[in-house]
Amino acid sequence: MKPVVLSLAPLPAELVSALIMQTSGLPDFDVVSGGGMSREDLLDAFSRADVVMGDYTFQRPISSDLIEKAFSLRLIQQPSVGYQHIDVDACTERRIPVANTPGANTASVAEHTMACGLSLLRKLSAANQGMREGRWDQLSLNPAELAGKTWGLIGFGRIGRAVSLRLKPFAPARVLYYDVVRLSAQEEDEFGVDYTPFSDLLGLSDIVSLHAPLTEASLHMIGDEELGRMKPSAYLINVARGELVDEEALARALKEGRIAGAAVDVFSREPVAGDNPLLGAAGNNLLLSPHVAGVSTEAAGRIITMAAGNIARVLKGLEPLHVVNGTFITPAGERSTE
Predict the structure, then answer these.
(1) CATH 3.40.50.720 residue ranges for the chain
(2) Active-site residue 216, yes or no?
(3) pLDDT at 282 (0 to 100)
(4) Are the C-beta atoms of residues 32 and 13 closer than 8 Å to each other?
(5) Which of 110, 146, 199, 290 has its CA 20 to 30 A from that of 66?
(6) pLDDT less than 50: residues of the chain
């Protein structure tokens, strides 16, 4: 029987097939689109699938009941960095590898972070709004320069490092970072950053940007207390995970003027519901975007190509790359030599 690739991504099955077929030496396979399937049909599709491509909109969760039906599943390939909608523990118990696409959107998120910081400092939202309302606020906006400011990075993985490199030409006074793993002195010098304890970073920075993963320890790492440590003139940028920030606390801080402003691209519930407190706090000091930091045209192309390439590896009997839940050998028993 032909291997079956079940795609939960909102993409035509023909496109998914074409992307996978860019790799040579593949066996004949079928792609089935599961995006519009009923729960009953989805359970049946999981029972027949050899590979599942996840949903990058996170609207089709891969839960334990689906995993229990997966009798021949060799890989769940998520076409994004995040995979919080997949029951990874259930997959691990069944020895089903789950892979993501690390690094594919690093440049996109880093550039979005920079754009947010510059927009907040230059008061571009307020300037745009004033012009649309017929005002000429040239002498009242008081935009600021990034040069000479202190930027604090919370989380210093791929994206935090990419932001630090992009900051260099702007000549900030200092770039601080906090991470659970400290770099070597040589690496800190290479990236031009100074390690700073979390609470100290909050108090010293003019801009704080979040690039940390969501864990039990990082849940609501920014709340009333942490916002209170920030300068009244400081800005917060969240391009990581919505749950890192207590949204009600941030809305209060913005309304009360306890920080100068914020840019938020990620939310605790997506799409954002009408009762999200940040919507009520929206003003010229708050930039909101619909989780687009990592989905530039270029990044989307890299992500889907990377995901399709990993699926092709498994169809060829090779070990998948970028597995997030351990090391697994494909049923063919072959390790990659590529």
Answers:
(1) 4-103+297-315, 106-288
(2) no
(3) 79
(4) yes
(5) 290
(6) 331-338
Stated as kind and residue range, the H or E segment containing 47 is helix 39-48
Q: How far, in Å, CA of 242 to CA of 213, rounded?
A: 10
Q: Which of 291, 313, 319, 322 is catalytic?
A: 291
Q: What pLDDT score does 335 carry?
A: 38
Token couple for 277: 């407190």
If you search the block for the tokens 């993985």, which residue do you land on? Answer: 157
Please provide the CATH number assigned to the domain covering 106-288.
3.40.50.720
* CA-wise closest residue to 315 among 9, 11, 17: 17
Q: Which of 74, 1, 104, 134 is nearest to 317 (CA)?
A: 74
270 is catalytic: yes
- Of 68, 111, 248, 270, the catalytic one is 270
Q: What is the pTM of this model?
A: 0.88
Burial of 56 (0-12, 13-18, 19+ CB in 10 A): buried
Residues near 116 by beta carbon (within 8 Å), at least 6 away in sequence = 209, 237, 239, 263, 265, 287
